[in-house]
Structures are given as C-alpha cells and as structure tokens.
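HUMAN: Ready with one sample?

ASSISTANT:
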Amino acid sequence: MTLLTVLLQAANAAGLGTMGAALGIGLAAIGAGYGIGKIGGSAMDGIARQPESAPDIRMNMIISAALIEGVALFAVVVCGFIL
C-alpha cells in the first residue's frame, strides 16, 4: 500500500474529514466577510475622494461582492456535502 492510502485511511478512521469540512465552512465564511468588508471600505474611500464617480464605484462594488458571495456559497456547499 502506498503512503497516501495509509494516510487517507487513518484520516477517515479519525474523523479528520469531518473536522476539515467544518473548518473549511468557517474559513469560507470568514474570508467572504473579510473580502466584502475590504470592498466596502475601499468603495467608500473612492466615493469620498471622487463623489462624481459614485454610481460607477457602487456598481463595481456590488458586482464584486456578488462574485465573492458566489464563491463563498460554493465553498460552503462543497464542504457541506463532505459532512
């Protein structure tokens, strides 16, 4: 048997897959929150510096936030399937 097979069997017996999936869900949620927070802060800075470009900045902020939420949702669903 290869080393990888032995390690995978040991991880399965110890329940490490469940712990890893739960950790992945948490990291996906934290990462999405951090990313959207950075986008919001940067957008507010940009709007404060150039108020005339607020509609463009707001539209780009919403699109970026939606893409981050989509990736986070995908990560949570995949980790949920592992559970």
